[in-house]
Design goal:
The complex is a heteropentamer of chains A (about 500), B (about 525), C (about 160), D (about 260) and E (about 80). Chain B is an all-alpha fold. Chain B contains 22 helices and two strands. In chain B, helix 1 packs antiparallel against helix 4 and helix 15 runs antiparallel to helix 21. With about 160 residues, chain C is mainly alpha-helical. Chain C contains seven helices and no strands. In chain C, helix 2 runs antiparallel to helix 3 and helix 3 runs antiparallel to helix 6. The longest helix of chain C has about 30 residues. Chain C is elongated. Chain D folds into two domains: about 40 residues; about 180 residues, no CATH class. Chain D has about 260 residues and is mainly α. The chains are: A mainly alpha (about 500), B mainly alpha (about 525), C mainly alpha (about 160), D mainly alpha (about 260), E mainly alpha (about 80). Chains C and D meet through helix 2, helix 3, helix 4, helix 5 and helix 6 of C and helix 1, helix 2, helix 3, helix 4 and helix 5 of D.
Chain lengths: ~500, ~525, ~160, ~260, ~80
């Protein structure tokens, strides 16, 4: 490839947090140093990612082969940074900093146990995430995907009680089960069909493999369900189950790492394995099936979210729906819809992390978990609830947040594909999104009489404000702001994504 | 001297055993240095043989100098080392060496008065296994199988557990039946071909007049059943779980990784160099049946493992399932299935070793024989559990461990030959393994009865103070360095073998070029 | 009748070996007494040896020892010592070898193999007997069903 | 179990019998095993015709056993050795309860003593003859049936007879545990030592021919013959020792005192 | 090779094998096994396998019978089947 730059930067970016893990363990007696290590590695990581940004933005890709020895598989462990990976890495590494800050506040605020383990595995998870983002072939992708599943298990089961145990079980059963049961055979089938080529560079792997319609369909679905971190129904229930984890973990799962890795993998499959031509009506026309499954997920999960009283569960189901937007966009395989999908990774990440931070902050400050208890909360926690409002706007897709940009692209892409039914799905789901978020905000600021819990002040005044610790509030403010900034500064992101999308050969 | 390496490879542990017998009788402390020296010499020989094979192709060694330039082939006994068995030699010697490190003090504790005998037997076991691997003579293979079997019967029966002795008796009966069937099969072949040398038999069998005789078919069945008994293939596995779980821990570390694997290698050797894959897959055409048997073995082994409450028993049933992997892979009748089976022999040896060492450390240090007694191990023995986790992940098939890649090749073979049942069985077993091991992880991580609600313990451990797992206590629950170090080395090997599986697979493929796996004719 | 004439009679040794082997195998599998199992094992192994030896039989042949043959040619075989008439000795023996008719001697190879098998058999028997003694020490019986019963009950020293 | 055994046995039997009609006829000199396939090389014919040229040993079985397939035989000896070590490992018990050194169970009666005397005297006469015969069998294995195994077993049997006729202790006094274990090791040492000497002289393992350099006044062929005798002696050592070891352990439950 | 001799021994072999497995007294069983070994040794000698016959006579009929009796002496003489 002529536009490839060889550099070991991706490796170091990936290792930055992995190497931090032993340091974190080493400083287990010195919480400040330990968290210092977390921060240092987080900034180093972001710095390394940013260092790669100009190269990638300049239309080049960075390649680095770590191990070239898998003769039988003919697929080295290699990194390849392109626009898609870059965007994802950028999102993940920048949000990690915020999340670290937040988790320090959260963990200290609640005097959680085993914080060392928590931070160590957090760092390892981030490494795995970046590994996925930078994966240069399907094998590397799979490898880091599995690593992420395993590294997040101790986080999900952090509380080590019965509930955590059940949640952890569901978590691993779904993730490992589907990845071994579906993704691995699909991977091997791809490998055989393509004659031993698994790399993402150049043409899509299966572009000229001569698949039949049925084979293509089965393979695509195997990948889509195999990478069940994307939360497609019917393999979604690990996500609400994993809500037992501490809130920073939920934030990590929902915004930074896990679910995004899932949809990222599906995007990779669509663009890199099949190629958009093959997915679309011009090729095997298999994308539409996936699109409808995603659409189904969107509607159903939104309806379920509407009925949830536990805030975190409501957010979880919202995530499932939002992820399916991304899958849907990818499956439609038009230029605009793929762009929208990729942008939605960033937009949803920023929005959803804000919402989770808010939920966590509310829990830290008041111990409240249920929406019905939150009436009038705007009076005591105005910053948090404002951020919550902005986050909701982002997820619904209203201005002035990044969510609008991505959703706009998605809708336009759907229109481009001429799928009127799916347009309807977008319309309905957006209404549903608004329906499950906005009442929360409305209740918080304008509670109906009689619903306000005792102890809530009658009127807002600064003296009654009892926000969560600053380490919680600052991050959520940052992310809320980020959501707005991304709206106004979306040009850069679009450029980055555009670079990538234009290389797909629409 | 380098052309004498095959002989030295075998003689070194043999002399080690003899010297142990003479010297060690008076002073038990001298046994281990002798053993370690003998095995190191062997390991060195194995590695240089591997290097030679990679560089310049298979090595033929004619014992007694009866080489074909002087006399017809098959007059003397031939040793043949190609890439596959060179790799296996390295694995056998490495495993034996690691186990010997593990046994430094354990052997003395478990058989106080009989330490020299233990070391003698384990060295003779190595002689047997190495000999089985290198020989190219069908009858010589039987003799060496008996060397390894007799020593392993004794190693199993040495323990103090009554059930172990009973298991050893069953092992003897089954082992004798297996070996006798093999011997009978060789007799049938000899009757039809007049030869005992594998290559010579192969040459004669390629003549359809001889090759299609019912006698040869029966010979093949006999050999196959014999070897299957030795490797504990599904319906014939009955002896294995008790024998391996009630024997002394050092024995189980030595036998579990090696015996079944070498038997699988014998099957592959017989298939490829005696009968030839063409004969087996094209004129016999049983590959479907055997692969289905293997599927049953895999599923049955996994399900039985799921039903166990004892850790070692569970691992034993996993061995049964793993044997199914390898038999199935070898019978997929294509190149990749065979590569996968052979690569799995190598990786499974280390995986099993890793798990057995870890399990034995658990049993020794925490008296935890049952799975539910493993609670809280992550805290108490972090290093040992790390080793265990790596072995378990390899067993599940998580990248980048060796277990993932062997499964990968096997799956490729299965998909290419269209044996979907095998593919499904493999995936089911991976999932069952995942359930099995995460059940253990959970117990080890949470404890048996986790706290009811997670509000209860928010204050029970304040991290601002030094955590309860301080430096002084962190490793206090660990086993001795002599037991933990081999475990960690094994774990490292598992990962390295996975990451650098390329060169190894290359060697296997190179060796298979000499005796290509010809697929079934009609599909 | 024809069947017997064509299939059984020319191979009667093989039929008998199969019968003996099956007797042994049946005993190994079904007998409850451990020593009986071992007796079955011995019979099983000797049956295989019988089979091998049968392969090597040639009608009208003699035992595979060349002694008398060498003497015919005037070369005393016992004369192996330090005499150093190498060239003529070599020549002599060469002559004698060319006169050796392979059909005149039984096939020696199965004999060699079976020597090994007999030795292996007795070794296995010894170890098996030792194990049965040690079982008797632990369980006080050699009957398999009683042992299994005791294991199930978990008597003293027997962990279940 | 019974039915399972019956089915398994019947199945195996039918399988084996089904191939029987295709066997070469019993005693057929032209069967593949005896004469090779389609006039190709036959190993056994080679042995019959060429043994004398190659090794100057008239007993073909001995020559094949100790030279052509000497590698097999070495491991066969290792099997025996392993059995001996195995039985030691399984059965041998040290210390524990000491039993009164005089037999009480069998013969305290006068009649028993008489029998003892008769048996004892007979054995006294017969054992030297047996041992002499055993040595003859070992030494004369080149020319007549016999060799290391047979001689070793007979020699071992003579010690067993001694133990049977008198007491185990009597035999052990002549052939103590240390001695027989050492002898077993030495036996294999001799065998593999011959092999290793060949390696040291830059020939393949067990290629005895080269040993003529070490043996005065022999050529390669005679060196083979002599070395075969050497390894047979080694085999005899091991077999003698182990046969007695097995008996000694079995007859005294591993206590090595006061067997029957 | 004398076929009639052969046949007679073979028949006796089967009989002795069956008896030694039927007899409930293990000591008798071991003795009959010795007879069996001796018969088979005769058979081999008659087949021309003198070395094998010699070994079987020494090992099978001799030593292994003694081993077996030594074990039976120290365990139980009666067998349930």
């Amino acid at each position: 490839m002529d536009n490839a730059v060889h550099s070991s930067l991706p490796l170091w970016a990936c290792l930055a947090s992995l190497l931090a893990a032993p340091v974190i363990v080493l400083f287990r007696r010195e919480p400040s140093l330990r968290e210092g290590a977390t921060f240092v590695s987080a900034f180093v990581k972001l710095g390394l990612v940013l260092a790669m940004l100009p190269i990638v933005a300049g239309g080049k890709v960075i390649e680095f082969t770590l191990i070239d020895g898998f003769a039988g598989i003919n697929a080295p462990i290699m990194f390849r940074v392109d626009g898609l990976g870059m965007l994802f890495a950028l999102v993940a590494s920048s949000l990690w900093i915020v999340t670290s800050l937040y988790s320090i506040g959260y963990m200290r605020g609640l005097h959680e146990h085993s914080q060392t383990r928590f931070f160590a595995f957090f760092a390892i998870s981030l490494s795995a995430t970046l590994g996925v983002a930078f994966a240069g072939n399907l094998l590397t992708l799979y490898l880091f995907y599995e690593m992420l599943s395993l590294a997040t298990w101790p986080l999900v089961t952090h509380h080590q009680d019965k509930e955590a145990r059940t949640g952890g079980r569901t978590y691993l059963t779904y993730l490992l089960g589907t990845s071994i049961g579906f993704a691995l055979p699909a991977l091997i089938f791809t490998w055989i069909k393509s004659g031993g080529d698994l790399s993402f560079g150049g043409d899509a792997i299966l572009a000229s493999a001569g698949l039949s319609h049925l084979q293509g369909l089965v393979l695509l679905l195997a990948f889509a369900f195999g990478f069940s971190k994307a939360g497609m129904m019917p393999f979604h229930s690990w996500l609400p189950g994993a809500m037992v984890a501490p809130t920073p973990v939920s934030a990590l799962l929902h915004a930074v790492a896990v679910v995004k890795v899932g949809v990222f993998c599906i995007l990779r499959v669509v663009t890199g394995v099949f190629g958009v031509q093959l997915i679309g009506p011009g090729g095997l026309d298999v994308g539409i099936v996936l699109a409808w499954i995603a659409a189904f997920t969107v509607i159903v999960s939104s309806l379920i979210a509407l009925s949830q009283d536990n805030l975190k569960r409501r957010l979880a189901f919202s995530t499932i729906g939002q992820l399916s937007y991304i899958v849907l966009g990818a499956a439609l395989a038009t230029k605009l819809s793929v762009t929208g999908s990729i942008l939605h990774i960033a937009a949803h990440a920023v929005g959803k992390i804000t919402l989770f931070f808010c939920a966590g902050a509310i829990f830290v400050a008041t111990g409240k978990k249920y929406i019905s208890q939150m009436a009038g909360l705007g009076r005591t926690m105005p910053i948090t609830m404002s951020a919550f409002f902005i986050g909701s706007l982002g997820v619904i897709g209203l201005p002035p947040t990044a969510g609008l940009i991505s959703k706009f692209h998605l809708v336009m892409g759907t229109a481009e594909a001429g799928e009127k039914g799916l347009l309807l799905v977008f319309l309905v789901s957006t209404i549903l999104n608004a329906a499950y978020f906005l009442p929360v905000v409305y209740q918080a600021f304008f509670p109906k009489a009689g619903t306000v819990p005792e102890g809530t002040p009658e009127k807002f005044s600064w003296s009654t404000v009892r926000e969560a610790p600053w380490a919680c509030v600052v991050p959520l403010s940052i992310t809320a702001l980020l959501s707005i900034i991304l709206f106004f500064g979306s040009g850069f992101l679009r450029e980055l994504v555009g670079q990538f999308v234009s290389g797909l050969g629409f | 001297m380098s052309e004498q390496l095959p002989a030295i490879l075998l003689l070194s542990p043999l002399f080690g055993a003899l010297i142990t017998g003479l010297v060690g009788m008076t002073d038990h402390r001298r046994c281990f240095p002798i053993l370690a020296t003998a095995l190191t010499v062997s390991l060195f020989c194995a590695i240089s043989l591997l290097a030679q094979v990679v560089k310049s192709g298979p090595i033929d060694y004619f014992v007694g100098g009866w080489d074909p330039q002087r006399v017809p082939l098959g007059i003397g006994i031939q040793l043949r080392i190609d890439g596959i068995n060179a790799l296996l030699l390295v694995v056998i010697t490495t495993v034996a060496l690691l186990t010997s490190i593990y046994s430094i003090r354990r052997a003395g504790e478990e058989n106080t008065e009989k330490t020299p005998q233990f070391y003698m037997l384990s060295q003779m076991l190595c002689v047997g296994l190495l000999g089985i691997t290198v020989t190219a003579d069908a009858f010589n293979l039987f003799v060496l199988v008996e060397v390894s079997s007799l020593t392993s019967y004794a190693l199993v029966a040495m323990g103090s557990k009554p059930r172990g002795t009973m298991a050893a008796f069953n092992y003897i009966i089954m082992g004798t039946i297996g070996a006798s069937f093999y011997l009978l099969g060789v007799g049938y072949l000899y009757m039809k071909t007049g030869m005992l040398n594998m290559a010579a038999i192969h040459q004669i069998l390629s003549d359809p007049n001889v090759g299609h005789s019912p006698t040869v078919y029966v010979a093949f069945i006999l050999i196959l059943v014999g070897v299957w008994t030795k490797m504990a293939f599904f319906p014939l596995y009955g002896w294995l779980p008790n024998a391996y779980s009630y024997c002394p821990s050092t024995t189980s570390c030595l036998l579990a990784p090696l015996m079944t694997k070498v038997s699988v290698y014998v099957m592959i050797r017989v298939m490829l160099s005696v009968f030839g894959s063409e004969w087996i897959f094209q004129s016999l055409g049983w590959s479907h049946t055997v692969v289905w048997l293997a599927c049953i073995a895999i599923v049955a082994g996994s399900v039985l493992a799921l039903a166990q409450v004892e850790l070692k028993k569970m691992l034993c049933y996993l061995i049964v399932a793993e044997v199914g992997y390898m038999v199935g892979g070898a019978w997929l009748a294509n190149h990749w299935g065979m590569v996968g089976a052979i690569y799995h022999i190598l990786s499974d040896a280390f995986m099993t070793l890793c798990l057995f060492i870890a399990a034995n450390i658990f049993i020794k240090n925490r008296r935890a024989e049952r799975i539910d007694q493993l609670e809280g191990l992550f805290k108490k023995m972090p290093i040992t559990t790390t080793g265990f986790v790596i072995g378990a992940l390899a067993m599940i098939g998580v990248p980048p461990t060796a277990g993932f890649f062997s499964k990968w090749y096997l799956l490729r073979g299965g998909i290419e030959s269209g044996q979907w049942g095998y593919v499904v069985a493999l995936l089911i077993s991976s999932l069952v393994n995942a359930i099995l091991f995460f059940r253990i992880f959970e117990v080890a991580y949470f404890g048996k009865n986790p706290v009811e609600s997670h509000d209860a313990h928010h204050d029970h451990e304040d991290e601002t103070q030094p955590s309860s797992v301080g430096d002084s206590t962190l490793f206090s629950g660990e086993g001795r360095p002599t037991t933990v170090i081999p475990l960690l080395i094994t774990a490292a090997i598992i990962v390295l073998l996975g990451v650098f599986n390329g060169p190894i697979v290359e060697i296997i493929q190179q060796a298979l070029d000499g005796m290509p796996v010809v697929g079934a004719a009609i599909r | 009748m024809e069947f017997i004439q064509n299939s059984v009679l020319p191979h009667f040794n093989y039929w008998v070996y199969v019968i003996l082997m099956m007797i042994g195998l049946y005993a190994m599998i079904t007998k409850k007494n451990l020593v009986k199992k071992l007796i079955g094992m011995t019979i099983f192994q000797t049956a295989i040896i019988l089979f091998y030896v049968s392969i090597g039989v040639k009608t009208g042949s003699t035992i595979p020892i060349l002694e008398h043959h060498a003497e015919e040619h005037g070369e005393a075989v016992t004369d192996t010592g330090g005499h150093h008439e190498e060239a003529p000795g070599e020549h002599e023996s060469h002559d004698s070898i060319h006169a050796v008719d392979p059909d005149h001697f039984a096939n020696p190879l199965p004999h060699v193999l079976m020597l090994t098998a007999i030795v292996v058999g007795v070794s296995t028997l010894g170890v098996a007997l030792a194990i049965s003694q040690s079982i008797y020490k632990d369980f006080g019986t050699l009957e398999e069903h009683e042992i299994l019963e005791k294991i199930k009950q978990g008597g003293p020293g027997i962990d279940v | 179990m019974k039915w399972l055994g019956l089915i398994a046995t019947a199945f195996t039997g039918i399988l084996l019998l089904s191939a029987t009609p295709y066997f070469p006829s019993f005693g057929d000199p032209n069967s593949p095993a005896n004469a090779g396939v389609n006039g190709g090389v036959s190993v056994s014919q080679y042995y019959i015709t060429e043994t004398y040229t190659d090794t100057k040993v008239p007993n073909i079985v001995t020559a094949v056993l100790a030279d052509y397939r000497g590698y097999d035989t070495m491991f066969e000896t290792v099997v025996i050795f392993a059995a001996g070590v195995a039985i030691f490992a399984i059965l041998r018990s040290f210390g524990g309860t000491t039993i009164p050194s005089h037999p009480t169970a069998i013969d305290t009666s006068v009649e028993g003593d008489h029998q003892r005397i008769i048996i004892g005297m007979t054995c006294k006469l017969i054992i030297p003859v047996i041992q002499l015969f055993a040595l003859y069998v070992v030494a004369h294995g080149h020319h007549s049936p016999g060799g290391g195994f047979q001689g070793g077993v007979i020699l071992g049997a003579s010690f067993i007879l001694m133990a049977l006729a008198k007491e185990l202790d009597t035999a052990l006094a002549r052939f103590s545990e240390k001695r027989y274990l050492a002898l077993a090791c030495v036996g294999i040492f001799i065998y593999s030592g011959f092999g290793l000497l060949c390696v040291a002289l830059e020939r393949n393992f067990l290629d005895y021919g080269i040993l003529h350099r070490l043996m005065p006044a022999t050529d390669e062929i005679m060196a083979r013959s002599h070395s075969m005798l050497g390894v047979e002696v080694g085999v005899a050592f091991t077999v003698t020792a182990i046969m007695f070891a097995i008996y000694a352990n079995l007859s005294s439950k591993g206590r090595l005192e006061q067997g029957f | 090779m004398i076929v009639s001799f052969d046949l007679v021994i073979l028949v006796f072999l089967i009989i002795t094998a069956a008896i030694s497995l039927r007899v409930r007294d293990l000591l008798s069983a071991a003795m009959i096994l010795g007879v069996y070994s001796f018969l088979i040794c005769l058979l081999w000698a008659e087949m021309g396998a003198v070395d094998v016959a010699f070994t079987e006579a020494a090992v099978g009929a001799g030593v292994s019978t003694v081993f077996m009796i030594a074990t039976i002496y120290h365990t139980r003489r009666r067998s349930s089947d």
